[in-house]
Amino acid sequence: MQNIVGIDIGGSHITLAQVDPEKREIIASTYVREHVNAFENKEVIFSAWVSAIHKAAHGLVKDSLLVGIAMPGPFDYENGISLMQQGKFIDLYEVNIKDELAKRLYISREQIHFVNDAAAFMEGEVFGGCAQGFNSAFGVTLGTGLGTTFFNGKFAADEDLWNSPFRDSISEDYLATRWFVNRYKELTGQEISGTKDLLDKPVEIQARIFDEYADSFSEFIVTYVDHYKPEVLVIGGNIAKAYPYFEQQFVQNLKKNNINLQVKISAIFEDAAILGAAGYALKKLI
């Protein structure tokens, strides 16, 4: 069995685990999550990453180890070079992370593969989640931001539609958590932190806000997603957990536009990027 570690690198953390390629699932006993300050210098960041990888990969033979890493952009994924010039990971700008990790882990650079973090979500759902068996799939992550990704039957790619024009602004302003926060305050003068809080509010205000959200989300699908003709739409992110509250209106709106699209809610949520990074690395191995 191939020894493989899937890694999800974010601005404040590294989350990783060994992955069973036959069962297509995370080996829970190897799960590691460590805080990493993305504003630190290069050595501090690499030390934290390598320490976490050693913990998760404990007991694996290095010569046969495969490492898949989900990484935010901008990034040269094929060569493993960071292109982030501002904000997080600024001290890693133009650093060849693939070479650095290979050297520090005592493995070859051919054993390390990078994938965009948004695409990794979709790769994870195709590899071990709700999109297994589909030849094409569009993924949307709805949370603090808007993520969009398309799987074409071979690989998933980040479609980067968060800032696409929408109504009087951009898509993310209508589909991310901040829309719920702002809309609730407009209607009530009170504050919530997101959909979880909204579920504790009176049914009337819940229904109104979720119906409005369904209208926006379906309009986004009609405008930007339908032309991909995916076999399935996969929805992830924290807002996806509230899908039953806007599902009926959302599906009705799609049908009015002659869109009969299968909709699946993420089966693995936070673990999708780890599984996706591992699944992507396995595909690159073939």
UniProtKB/TrEMBL annotation:
The keyword Transport does not apply. Gene3D superfamilies: 3.30.420.40. It comes from the Bacteria. Coiled coil: none annotated. GO terms for molecular function: kinase activity. Transmembrane segments: none annotated. Keywords: Kinase, Transferase. InterPro entries: ATPase_NBD, ROK. Belongs to the ROK (NagC/XylR) family. This is Glucokinase. The lineage of its organism: Bacteria, Pseudomonadati, Bacteroidota, Flavobacteriia, Flavobacteriales.
